[in-house]
Automatic annotation (TrEMBL):
Pfam families: Epimerase_2. This is UDP-N-acetylglucosamine 2-epimerase (Non-hydrolysing)/UDP-GlcNAc3NAcA epimerase. NCBIfam families: wecB. InterPro entries: UDP_GlcNAc_Epimerase_2_dom, WecB-like. Keywords: Isomerase.
Length: 349
């Protein structure tokens, strides 16, 4: 079994870490890093911390519009498909769509990890990516029964299989190794700060919404730690708003172990990231989502995640809510990576 795996950003490195070593134990994996996340030094940190194999192919295809980026990725991936039994993609990025589309057009089976997630907000490029990838896939590997039900309702052609969430595997393995010295370096104490992340184009590319984001972060009753995504820093600087983040503790982009320590120690998380919503849930930390929709709807239904968009009053209200009494295991038992590989073996047999 020869599998081409396509990754391109940090959340995909985390997901691949649950699968790659198991996959290489039973077959051959060719790992392709598209370079969609273009901080090469930080990419190396993630590969080292997660013990991911070095990619056999590493491109630098970030930048430009979504269309331009996806087109470059298609051209780079297509020549790598000879002799491949399956292409494995994760999540909902341009790298995901490019891997799936290149494979489907070449008649190579596609396996999609994290299939069936829906925010039903087509303004988000990620929603279009995940819908198109699912309908191009031969094997749809779901984090939850709810995602599987969504796919069946959409009458996808591929096989739907609930395997659990691979991020649970990685979190359970690496959370005990979280770098708690990160809190000391940033001058914060466990339970006495909020952790924020923001990078979605819908929040940072529009000047009015970027101003509203700054108002949310500076209007919270606890110190806010903000690891600054390169895109967000550039937009804040261009708008003259970086200095307006009064009282916000700014940090550079962080490795997995540093970031996980901050999640575990936070009173709550404010984010527009899908993956961080899920990481907060796994850590038992309430999440305040800076969007009006989410693909991780189970976390909202369970009471651990509140959608506030960029409404500062709503964010403060969400922070004041009591914690739910229960936190059910929505995304499996930490053995999703094992099940992904078993499903790939069955598909390619």
């Amino acid at each position: 079994m020869r599998v081409l795996t396509v990754v391109g950003n940090r959340p995909q490195f985390v997901k691949a870490a649950a699968v790659s070593s198991r996959l290489r134990a039973v077959g051959e994996e060719v790992l392709v890093h598209t370079g969609q996340h273009y901080d090469d030094a930080l990419s190396r940190v993630f590969f080292d911390e997660l013990e991911l194999p070095r990619p056999e192919h590493h491109f630098e295809l970030g930048g430009g519009t979504n269309t331009e980026q996806t087109a470059r990725m298609l051209s780079a991936i297509a020549p790598l498909l000879d002799g491949v039994d399956a292409v494995l993609v994760y999540g909902d990025t341009n790298s995901t769509l490019a891997g799936a589309l290149a494979a489907a057009q070449a008649g190579v089976p596609v396996a999609h990890v994290e299939a069936g997630m829906r925010s039903y907000d087509r303004r988000m490029p990620e929603e279009l990516n995940r819908v198109l990838t699912d309908h191009a896939s031969t094997l749809l590997l779901c984090s939850s029964e709810a995602a599987a039900a969504t796919l069946r309702a959409e009458q996808v052609v591929g096989t739907v299989d609930v395997v659990g969430d691979v991020m649970v595997d990685v979190f359970e393995l690496l959370a005990p190794r979280a770098d708690t010295a990160t809190l000391d370096r940033l001058g914060v104490r466990s339970g006495e700060y909020l952790l924020a992340t923001a990078h979605r184009a819908g929040n940072v590319d529009d000047p009015a919404r970027l101003r509203a984001l700054v108002d949310v972060l500076t209007g919270m009753p606890l110190p806010v730690v903000l690891p600054l995504h390169p895109r967000t820093r550039a937009r804040l600087e261009a708008a003259g708003l970086l200095d307006a983040l009064d009282g916000v503790v700014l940090a550079p982009p962080l490795g997995y172990l540093e970031f996980t320590a901050l999640v575990l120690g936070a009173r709550a998380v404010l984010t527009d990231s899908g993956g961080v919503q899920k990481e907060a849930y796994l850590a038992g930390v309430p999440c305040i989502t800076l969007r009006s929709t989410t693909e991780w709807r189970e976390t909202v239904d369970a009471g651990w995640n509140v959608l506030v968009d960029l409404d500062a009053d709503a964010a403060r209200g969400a922070l004041a809510r009591p914690l739910p009494a229960e936190r059910p295991p929505l995304y499996g038992d930490g053995r999703a990576g094992e099940r992904v590989v078993e499903a790939l073996v069955r598909m390619t047999a």
